[in-house]
Design a protein that fits this description.
This protein is of the alpha/beta class and 404 residues long. It has two domains: 146 residues, Rossmann fold (3-Layer(aba) Sandwich); 137 residues, Alpha-Beta Complex (Argininosuccinate synthetase, chain A, domain 2), CATH 3.90.1260.10. It contains twelve helices and 14 strands. The strands form three sheets. It has a five-stranded parallel beta sheet, with helices on both faces. The chain has a five-stranded antiparallel beta sheet with strand order 10-9-8-13-14. A four-stranded antiparallel beta sheet has the order 6-7-12-11, with no helix packed on it. Strand 4, helix 5 and strand 5 form a beta-alpha-beta unit. Helix 1 packs across helix 6 and helix 7 packs across helix 8. It is elongated. It starts with 7 loop residues before the first strand and ends with a helix.
Length: 404
Amino acid sequence: MMQEGINKVVLAYSGGLDTSVILRWLQDQYQCDVVTFTADVGQGEELEPARSKAEMMGATEIYIEDLREDFVANYVFPMFRANAIYEGTYLLGTSIARPLIAKRLVEIAHETGADAIAHGATGKGNDQVRFELGAYALDPKIKVIAPWREWDLNSRKKLIDYAESRQIPIPRGKHGEPPYSTDANLLHISYEGRLLEDPWIEPDPEMYTWSVSPEDAPDVPTTLEIGFRRGDPVEINGEKMSPAELLTRLNEIAGANGIGRIDLVENRFVGMKSRGVYETPGGTILLTAHRAIESITLDRGAAHLKDELMPRYAELIYNGFWFSPERKMLQAAIDQSQQKVSGHVRLKLYKGNVMVVGRKAPGSLYSEALATFEEDDIYDQRDAQGFIKLNALRLRALVGQSGE
């Protein structure tokens, strides 16, 4: 529904067809100034063309920001401390980038005196929810414009016709565009729509851009060592790196070994099922390595409680509640559990597989003296008999009550 009193809007702007049409549509429909905001979260695209296009189309102000370090350090890494996976398979690559973008949209609106923010998410997807829940959590009075819920440009042909009628440059190849839509950041790249809407159709091998096919990966394994400090990775093979540098390097190493591809059908927050194909190469390694270092540094009770909390935490991120009090509460508990999660994990990568082959930590709870199959004078195996009998009391009582 059209909103009155809109003089200036901050638009999340990629420079592609959809957001370029939105820029002009906002100018046409609201007769307002448009500030564009383009975030570099590691999507791997040159962003300066977005500046030139925004200038050509009359944007009042243009923001292009490199948010890669902020994204990995303050969003990706906290999420990986929780080992978060949605519905057992999805590493939340798209979900985790949205709160950061929403945060900057609101901040730029405040900086520029804008009346509203706008985004290009459709009315069928999760991203509209994530952007807007994030924005409202930070500024309850912010106005949000979601063109896909207002206009009648509900097909690719109508978008292209609108662009041509207003001399909006159409990216090369859009008339014969690929049979899927993509979204990328430093954690992953996703592919959805078109041919992939049929969950029986196998993805085209030529579609993938970040990883080689496991069949074409090297015949010799790659071994690497990741160092952790308080739950976060800080080095690869002894070389200390910033968060964004480290994830970039893991993406390169994993992609070269065919790691990180997944084809899934997920349950969107808005109620429908959606088929998506993802490449999350570095994240796949990181999840395996983090669980490995936790296996020797976390107490059993803490580790099991974390695993119980994780599905709820992952669902909060997927549904757009990053800034909610419950997510912050869970994050505090998770971060507390990571205080002694420091050490090194050695992994072997081979044709799509990530295998843990070593782990060590200065605060390791693993005791070789206790775990050994050889003779020891620490653990009296006869004690296990009483332990078993005590735990069997209720089971034996149940059988007795049943008369069996």
